[in-house]
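Structure request: CUB domain-containing protein, Potamilus streckersoni.
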Amino acid sequence: MLRCSFDFLVAYDGQNKQANELGRFCGKTFAGVSSTGNQMYLEFVTDDSDQFGGFQLIVTFTNNIVVTCPSSKFLCENGHCIDQTYLCDGDDDCGDDSDETGSCPSTPPGGKVGCKASEYVCPTDHSCIPKEWLCDGDSDCSDDTDEINCVVTQSSNCGQMVYTGEHGFITSPNYPHNYDNNEHCIWVIAVPGDLAIQLHFLDTFDLEEDPSCSYDKINIFSSDRSIHKGPFCGSTSPGTLSFPTNNITVEFVTDDSDPYRGFRLEYTAVTKS
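Returned structure:
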């Protein structure tokens, strides 16, 4: 785990360093963050050695909050970030008890024996999976909860992360050439609040084929995850998809083998029906 003690960027949720810390970033990864109000304070610190290329930020003004947590934190279902050490300690540190459910040993309704301490309890069917399967890019729980509360590590060649215009295009890395192995891209589309979003996949759709889309896949969901479409993979295009919301996330994940051409999609803001 990176401690970010030498050169780092810190984002605060307000006008100064006394505000809550949204994230501390160093190395080669950055998770998008949003303030909860109209102000964010950024602090950039370097030490007396080892110079690097630095960073370029995209700043977007939106009514929708993109919530992620630094790698040392746990993302609660209500959007709060708490220390990983607070998980399963018997206290409701999140405020919605999400730090004490799901990832903790439990006894499901009906008296069925729960999972081991080394396992994660899938909330819907109460199946047990190894905790090392959490956030590995594969949906091992039937409800995808093992891939929800994850710190986003954005691959370096995903390009622009947030789209706020009423029309635009998103492609897999390297398109129309093959994408790379072990990609993880998150693209947020946030259009004006009185509009909805329509996606249309263009050209050739070409991801690794698998009946359950366990290897390379696309998932698309609303900001509150009440709408989830996917996973999509193989050579059959999802075609045109409509979302009755103004904020969606497109997630693209690949495994460590067999890269393919990928995809190109167009998004358009449309009038809500």
